[in-house]
Amino acid sequence: TPPTFNSEHEYITLDAALNRSYFSRSLPPIPKNCPTPMGVAGKKVLPDTEAILEKLYKRVEFKADPLNHNIHLPTFAQHFTHMFFKTDHRHGGQFQWGGHGVDASHVYGKDKHVENLLRSFTGGRLKSQMIKGEEYPPYHKKEKS
């Protein structure tokens, strides 16, 4: 994951480094006294969004990737992990806890406290309950936090 910036500072802050939202910055902001929107040496006007999208994505003919992938695969993979495994519902759907990869934290918990709530501490197993002779995870409300 590249370092992230926030809009208030031209350097990386702890808040920016720990920002797990979709909207973290990967480039520092343009200084407030800068005469152009793209830096001192930049153009006076930002390029048209539609023109950029057309230049990047519009193809006359299909060009196959040697591995049969495209640029959307890693983007979708990150979106998938955020949407299904690490959404921080206390702060809103656009925020995540944890890293950007797929790990087992959605099963074992995001920190030591939650991890310990889920463990039985017997034989390396997670806590479970028996219902009609079948083993299931415990109900969330029964676990004390």
Automatic annotation (TrEMBL):
Pfam families, sorted: An_peroxidase
Cellular component terms (Gene Ontology): cytoplasm; neuron projection
Organism: Aculifera sp. JCH-2014
E.C. code: 1.14.99.1
Ribosomal protein found in the keyword field: no
Keyword Ribonucleoprotein: no
GO biological process, one term: response to oxidative stress
Keywords: Dioxygenase, Iron, Metal-binding, Oxidoreductase
Gene responsible for this protein: COX
GO MF term set: heme binding; metal ion binding; oxidoreductase activity, acting on single donors with incorporation of molecular oxygen, incorporation of two atoms of oxygen; peroxidase activity; prostaglandin-endoperoxide synthase activity
Stored PROSITE patterns: PEROXIDASE_3
SUPFAM superfamilies per UniProt: Heme-dependent peroxidases
Protein name from the UniProt record: Cyclooxygenase
EC main group: oxidoreductase
InterPro entries in the record: Haem_peroxidase_animal, Haem_peroxidase_sf, Haem_peroxidase_sf_animal, Oxylipin_biosynth_metab
